[in-house]
Each structure stands twice: as structure tokens, then as C-alpha cells.
Amino acid sequence: MTAGRTAGRLAVAAAGPPILWVTVVLVGVAAALLPGFFSADNLANVLRQSAVLALLAIGQTFVVVAGMMDLSVGMLATLVLVLAADLMDGRAEATLAAVGLAAAVGIGVGALTGVLNNLLRINSLILTLGTLTILQGVTFIYTDQSLGAPSPAIAWLANGDVLGLPPSFLLVVLLVALAHLALHHTRFGVHLAAVGGAPQSARQAGIPVGRVQLAAFVISGLSAGLAGLVLLGRLGTGYPNAGIGLELDAIVAVVLGGTALAGGRGSVIGSVAAAVVLGIVSNMLNLLEVSSFVQMVIKGLVVIMVILIGQVRPERAA
Amino acid sequence: MALLETAGLSKSFGGVPVLAGLDFAAAAGEVHALVGANGAGKSTFLNIVSGSIAPTAGSIRLGGEVVRFANPQQAQRAGVSIVHQEFALAPLLDVATNIFLGREPRNRLGLVDRARMRRDAAALLARHGFRLDPGALVAGLSVAEQQLVEIARALSFEARVLILDEPTAALSPPEQQRLFAVIDRLKAAGVAILYVSHRLDEVFRIADRVTILRNGVRVDTRPTAGLDHAGLVRLMLGETAGPTASVARCAAAGPVRLAATYRAGEATSEIVLRAGEIVGLAGFVGAGRTHLARALAGHARPHEIEMMVDGVPVAPRSPAAAMRQGLVYLTEDRKRDGLFVPLGVLVNTTAGALDRVARLGVISRAAERRLGGGMLARLRLAAPGLGAPIDHLSGGNQQKAVFARALLAEPKVLICDEPTRGVDVGAKAQIHDLLLALAEGGLAVLVVSSEFGELLALADRILVMRDRAVIRTFRRGEVDEEMLFRAASGDPAVCAGRP
């Protein structure tokens, strides 16, 4: 019984996260169906489109590994987008201030969420549903219509290219490397996994559970702030509805990427790969001229399928 | 020279003393067993010594120095580690990480030095002869292997005192033997081991000395060599009140209601319950009583159990199916799987019998009130009203509501797991009367209880379980508390008798 279960786990581990296989299949299908898919321009475009989601997914991975969820990131990114757009209003010299603002707002809101989480000890899903609503309210109090514009540097970050690759995606790659290091090679990362997998055990081992959770929210907030800037660069204006619903896509990417939804184990590389896969899917469907509503249905089906592939059911298998 | 010593150690909870002036000493290289009946104060003592709770009075010395532990981490750093019955491991991390959780080695860059962690873990495991892969995920390990990880973690603090709380409760016999070998090696290495177990045969097998606790007081500390099983049980129980005054009842045992063959591991047990009979199921934590009781009520895997009800083979695959066959189980854990918590008393009572009070799927509140209220009145439940939230009632009245629900299912066989746990004396007597009345009325009743006195008072026969098998059956009148205790704790002189 135990042997069978272990064998099952090993088989899954050896096969790698299912997301990689899905990527391979998808790219194959795309290559066969769509002659335009493999052009350098189109591939760069896919990465460009995926960057915002990838940034959000990196931060969300930390929160999910810690056994929680952060629903506020879509709205937090939107708030940052609106504030930064208003601050820069297209002026080149305001870029640095806008980056500072994005980081400060992201970290500040993340820290606030973390503190509330420690004080109130309520389910993170409910807590961040609350902060999401508050952030949405604040955003619309600030403006109910588009305002401002990104500086040229921010626009370049989102739309430019460096050796054929979008700068935003290079930023993602850099952050993934850092996040991977933090998640798998620092005490913080190990403690995060312990807290998510077995909070009581972590407490008994002397791990400061509250502080670890707070740090996860701060990372999630910071990544949402950066995502807000990139999104602003893509849209070209501070549109207060810009990031609605992105939090769900981010959680989908994290889970597709092989992070345990219940916490305790995760991979930022997987999360970002999943964000790109979601980008490929919508790119393919766009090229096939499928309506965006049909696309939603297809996306939902892909999510369910991938989760099914990745699910091991020990008690049935044994 | 004692390595770990306590003087006058006392603890009260809300003014009630649970440990009163305990003097205790354990030497390096000694396996020191700690025994006592439920409520003797063992857990409190262990929790104080390992830093989880602070004593009300008294002192602890470790290697001659007075120590005070504010938390378990301090105790660990000082060299006192405990392995609880419930493990504290992170399942999705590997063995090495679990061993060093909370104090991972770091390299010059401040990153976790995984290579060193694996190396250190491998060295530690090899030193103590544990066959574990430092890189294996804890979730994939067996219970015995997880226990070794816990022990390795405890030892990684350079433990001088290792406390093992019921370490064999979840282990199979071969795994138990391997654990004993581990203990022998640690003992040779000079570790003092405090060993807590209900299984007295193990105490004789591995302990050098044994300290007996009763009602928060140390009765005695003796070398195991000069003791026998019966003598130790007498010390634990104190003055036994002679044969228990059991209810005079001439059980006219009727036809066989339930006949079951239960398989767990290598062992096979036969269980027969007759109409009008109360059968007791005795045993200690980890003996597998609840598993057997639940197996009879539709919670079993198909290969675990074969049953006949009234001579007809049945194989219920769910509690609902078991109920249709007349097999009804009353949980030992009301709060978790007995009560519907914010709901009222009446709903809690009729929840399983709504079909009987509904017409076309619509519940008639009047009929529900008649059916549930009638049953509750029969059980003499005291509540401010039938709508009163169930959790506002006393334990005894909560239990009566759960009982009422079970009886509304019209059982042929009633399986009660710890039916009087957490109820007051008055309610307990009423529940006992009820069980006797139900048996008189032709029901077959199985009572699982940790209180041997309760079984002796109620049961016509008592089955004793150990290691997931029924090892002995006693008839009413041929057994007393001491004998039951000896059988359940594995005294070969008692268990040698055929079941």
C-alpha cells in the first residue's frame, strides 16, 4: 500500500510538473495549426502579454506555499497603475518616483494585509476578499475614469525589445531567479513550506509563523506593484478597471504550475511557466479568431484538465 | 548521580491539583518507565519536563543544575527532547530538512546549505543506525519511519534526556522490535530515556526502573527486575475494591444478531453479539477498538470485515447502508462527528429520521416534535427548549441527544464508543440504566470504554483488544479490574488463555 503510494509519487515527480508537458503539446499543436505562431514577433508578443500575470503569479506562489491566498493582487495592481499614471502623466523624469511609489504601495498594502492576518487570524481568502473590495473602493474614489500616462521608460518596459525579447519578460526572468533562490535556498523559504504544510509543527519547531506569513504577503504586494507598472505600460493610460479578475488568473497559474493549493510545496518556475501557457492559449485562440467569450470557456476547461492530470489519489491508487 | 531530577513538582489547573509534589530522578543510560492509569498525571509531568507548561511549584535539575524552561525549544537546547504521540513534522519537506527545521545550516552567502544539511542528517542517521534516506519526503514514509525522523530530530539537539510518549501505539510488532533496538543503542550511548506506555509488557521488556503515578502522586519507583505484572498493576490501581458490584441481571441471551470476522494485519478476530446482550470492548489507546467499532458500522474497507446480521450476510459500504441493516454507531467524539453544532436539540435528534416526519419532502414540524420530543423525554433530556442550541447543553444532555438520534434509527445492534465520556455522574448512571433497558428490550449492545469499571458493571461479556485483535474474552463474574488491566497491557500469564 505504502509502496504503491510512494511509487505513484515518484512517478509524478519524475514526470515533472504537468504544466511542462502541456506546454510541449500546446506549442506542437500551435505550430501545426498556425503558421504565424512561430514567428519571432509573435513569440515575443506572447511573452509580452504574459508578463503581468507572471509577475502576479510569482508573488502569489509565496502566499500559496504558506497555505494562504491573496485575492487583493488584481486590485492592488490597478491602484498602483492609476496612481503611477497620474504621477508620471507621460513625463520621463517621473519614472523613478513612480517605481518608488509602486514598490511602496505594494509593500505597504502587503504588510498591512500581513499584520491584519496576524491580528485577526481569519481565513486569508476572506481577509483578502475584504482588502480587494477596499482597494477597489479606494481606486474608484481616486478616479472613475482613465487618467495620466506612463513615462516613455515604463512604456518601453512593457512594449519595447532587447535582442528580440520584451524587457518586462527579462524582469520576470530576473525575479524568478531571485524568487527561486528565496523559496528553495533560504531559511525563509524552508520555513514558508513548513508553515504551509503543517503550521502546528512549524510552531513547535520554533518558527515565527506570523512573521513568515507577513513576509509572504509583502512579497505578493511588491510583485503586484510591479505588475501594476507593467500593465500601465501596456495600456498606455491609468484605467481604473484594468486589473479586475487578475487575482484569479494568478491563482490558476500558481496551481497549474504545480504548487500545492493547500500549501507546503511550490515552484515559482512552474507558476511562471503556467502564466506563459495561459498566454500561449489566448494567443493561439486569438490567431484562430475565436471569440473572447469562447476563449473563457476553453481556458476553464484547460484548467480543470491540467489539475486532473496532476492529481494523485493515493487511497484509490493503492 | 541523577541526570534529570525533579523536586516537589506540582501543577494545578484552575485550583485542581493534577500533580502534587512529585520527586523524580532518572540516571544517564537508564530507561525509566512512567506508568499510571488515566488521569494519574503522566502527561502533565512530561509537559512540564519538556517545557510545554510551567509548574505551579517545584524545581527541575538537569545534570545537577536548576533549569527553567519557558518553551519546548529551550528544553531541547538544554538536551531534553520529547517525541509526542502526534508527530510534529512538515509532510512535504524531506527528512533532512525536518530534522533541522528551525535551525537550518547556512553557507557564507546566507543561503541554506542543503548539501551540509543532507550530510549532517546522513551522519546522524548512520550514527544511530536509522535506515532512512535524508532526501526522502516525509509524506511518503511509514508511521514507524516518521517516528524515527522525530527521534532523529530529538537526538540532533544532542539530547541527554529523550521522552517517548506511547511510542508503540501506532507501530506493528516488527516495527516495535526495531524501536526497542534503537532504544537499547541510545541507552548504551548514555541517553536517559523516559518511557511512557500503557503496554506493561513493554515496560518489563525495556525499562530498568519504573515510576508509578496515581492521582498526581508518585506511588513508588522500583527496579522492574523485582516486579511482576500483577504487582505493578496493583501499584497503579491502588486498593482494588474487590469484585465490582455488577448489576444483577440474568441475561437471557437471545439469538445471534451480529456475527463478524474482523481482519487487521495478520490477526483475525471473531465478534458475536446476541440479542439482549451487552458486550464490552476493552483495551488501551492504540489497541484498535474504535477502528473495529466503526468497521462494524459501515466504515470498513471490504477486505477488513465479513458480517452476518440475523444470519444474512451483509456488506455495508457506508454508515447509511449499515443503518439500513440495523447497525448503528455512536461516536466517541461527539464534538467532531456527533453534533450539528449551532443547531437546536430537536434537529440534532431527528436529523437521521426526517423521512419519517416528512410528507412529499416537506417536514411536518409537529410530527418532528412528536417523534424527537418523545424520544428525548424517554431519555430524560433536560433542555431549556427543543430549539436550544445543542452546544449550550451539558455533556450528558448532548450525549442523550446523540443517543436519541441513534435510537430513532431503530437499531438491531447499537455500537456505543465511550458512551459516558465527558458526562457527569448523574447522566452517566442514567445512560447505564438506558443501556441495560435497551438490552432487556432485545437490542444487542456493544460498549467500547476505557473505563474498565464501567465495562465490569455493564457487560455480560468483555472482549479485550490489543494490537488490533481481540486477544481474550471474559464472562461476567470471572474477571476483575486488575485482570482486565493485565490482559489489555499484555501480561503473558493472562493472555496465554485462549480468546
UniProtKB/TrEMBL annotation, chain B:
Keywords of this entry: ATP-binding, Cell membrane, Membrane, Nucleotide-binding, Repeat, Sugar transport, Translocase, Transport
Organism classification:
Bacteria, Pseudomonadati, Pseudomonadota, Alphaproteobacteria, Hyphomicrobiales
* InterPro entries assigned to the protein according to its UniProt record, in alphabetical order: AAA+_ATPase, ABC_carbohydrate_import_ATPase, ABC_transporter-like_ATP-bd, ABC_transporter-like_CS, P-loop_NTPase
Keyword Membrane part of the UniProt annotation? yes
The name of this protein is: ATP-binding cassette domain-containing protein
UniProt GO MF annotations: ATP binding; ATP hydrolysis activity
Q: Which organism is it from?
A: Rhodoplanes serenus
Q: Which GO terms describe its cellular component?
A: plasma membrane
Matching entries from CDD domains are given as: ABC_Carb_Monos_I, ABC_Carb_Monos_II
Compartmental location:
Cell membrane
Q: Which Pfam families match?
A: ABC_tran
Membrane-related topology note:
Peripheral membrane protein
